[in-house]
Amino acid sequence: LMYFGDLNRPKFLLKSIILNYSYTMQEPTITNNIRSYFERPLSTNQKRIHSSAEEERDWALRVRQECRVCKLNLPRAYFGYNTSGSWPFDRDGCLLRRPECLECMRIANSTKRMAVADAKERGLPTKAPPGTPCALCGKTTDIVFDHSHRHGKFRGWLCNSCNRAMGVMGDEPEELVKALMYSCGGNREEFKSVVVNHLKSLD
Fold first, then answer.
1. What is the dihedral angle through the alpha carbons of 149, 174, 161, 16, rounded to the nearest 10 degrees?
2. Are the beta carbons of 89 and 48 closer than 8 angstroms?
3. How many whole angstroms separate alpha carbon 93 and alpha carbon 5?
4. Which helix (H) or strand (E) holds 109?
5. CB of 114 within 8 A of CB of 99?
6. What's phi and psi for 133, nearest 5 deg?
7. Of 118, 117, 143, whose CA–CA distance to 130 is shortest?
8. Parallel, antiparallel or unpaired: strands 73-75 and 79-81
9. Does residue 49 come out as left (phi exceeding 0), alpha (psi in the -120 to 50 range) or beta?
10. Which of 21, 58, 78, 106 is 20 to 30 A from residue 140's alpha carbon, by CA?
């Protein structure tokens, strides 16, 4: 039995996941930039268990991880590199990979294109005007285009940090609400009170 995450997402996206996993997935390209990470000198608190990008790739073909989106258990090599930070290795010395497999990333990119088209159709900008605040924290720097991966619709503007945080927690309401319940210590009354008070603040 395979689980494909949010079954409310557009049917063509689910079909794309199923059909595209019927053939061998491609691995991300090893660029010179990726190779350079294995040539950097190590500080006393840094660790790196592979000597080259090619060695890491061969290891990643044997190790499996679950995709955060489609829930399939796939070779780690089928996940893109996650090297946006200053040090691209985790505490165990493994090169960081994205939590979403390449196929789900491809689908996410297709929903982004849909959302951009949606914004244009509604007469909205696709780049944040100067001074635009993050809808969550109010920050006015590093503002990015946010969209629903389920509906392929533009949602608003978030700073990069809030956008990444939402993505890590699942992005859609059914996933984010779990974090709220957790922050309430599992207390239903407190959870209900927080939601009701927030709704009242919007009136």
1. -20
2. yes
3. 30
4. helix 102-121
5. no
6. -85, 155
7. 143
8. unpaired
9. alpha
10. 106
How many CB atoms neighbour CB 97 within 10 A? 22
Nearest-10 Cα torsion for 182, 184, 188, 189: -170
Determine the pLDDT at residue 23: 44
- Burial of residue 63 (number of CB atoms within 10 Å: 0-12, 13-18, 19+): exposed
DSSP 8-state symbol, 89 = B
Residue type, 66: E
Q: From the CB of residue 202, how many other CB atoms can be counted at a distance below 10 Å?
A: 5
Using CA atoms, how far residue 175 sits from 27, 151, 162, in Å, is 28, 15, 15
Instruction: Note the pLDDT of residue 25.
Output: 65
What would the two tokens of residue 153 be?
Answer: 């619709």
Report mean pLDDT in 10-residue bins for the chain, 203 residues. 39 47 69 94 91 96 91 93 85 92 86 91 93 95 90 91 85 87 93 93 87
**The one-letter amino acid at 117:** A
Backbone angles phi, psi at 182, to 5 degrees: -65, -45
